[in-house]
Amino acid sequence: MNSEEARQVLHEHLEQYRGRSYGELRDLVDTSDDIKCVVSSGAKYQIRIQTFWDDRSHQNLRVRGTIDDGGWRAFLPLVEDFIRAPSGVFLGE
After folding, report:
1. What is residue 1's predicted lDDT score, i.e. its pLDDT?
2. Could you tell me which of 11, 30, 22 has the C-alpha nearest to residue 89?
3. Cα–Cα distance between 87 and 22 in angstroms, integer?
4. CA quadruple 79, 85, 86, 88: dihedral sign
5. In angstroms, what is the C-alpha Rg of the chain?
6. Which is more confidently placed, 37 or 73?
7. Which of 39, 57, 87, 88 is deepest in the core (most CB within 10 A)?
8. Facing residues of 81 across strands?
9. Whole domain around residue 16: which residue ranges?
10. Sequence-separated (6 or more) residues with CB below 8 Å from residue 78
């Protein structure tokens, strides 16, 4: 798996979620979106996007994306995530 290519693919998919409102993301809590894609290089990737509460007070949302090629990398996928506060700001950035 080309890690640089995979990170870029994952980043592009997560950007779609970054563009959503806090309310839209809240509606996705405890769900996952599983995506299979083939990129221009011909590589096949499996992406999973999950949304869950990042704190006990159920205020901040974490959206985590993982990507792998279905091989051994499935046991240790690449991960990227972000945290969104109710005010709409992204935490830790």
Report:
1. 83
2. 22
3. 8
4. negative
5. 14
6. 37
7. 39
8. 64
9. 3-91
10. 3, 6, 7, 10, 66, 67, 68
DSSP 21: -
Residue among 59, 67, 57 at smallest CA distance from 2: 67
For the chain, the average pLDDT equals: 94
The conformation of residue 11, written as its DSSP 8-state character, comes to: H
Please determine, for residue 93, whether its predicted confidence score (pLDDT) is greater than 90.
no
Number of structural domains the chain divides into: 1
Q: Please name every residue paired with 51 in a beta bridge, in sequence order, or none if there are none.
A: 29, 63
The full DSSP string for the chain is --HHHHHHHHHHHHHHHHTS-HHHHHTTBTEEEEEEEE-TTS-EEEEEEEEEESSTTS-SEEEEEEEE-SSGGGGS-EEEEEEE-TTSPEET-
Task: Locate 75 and state its tokens.
Answer: 């046991």
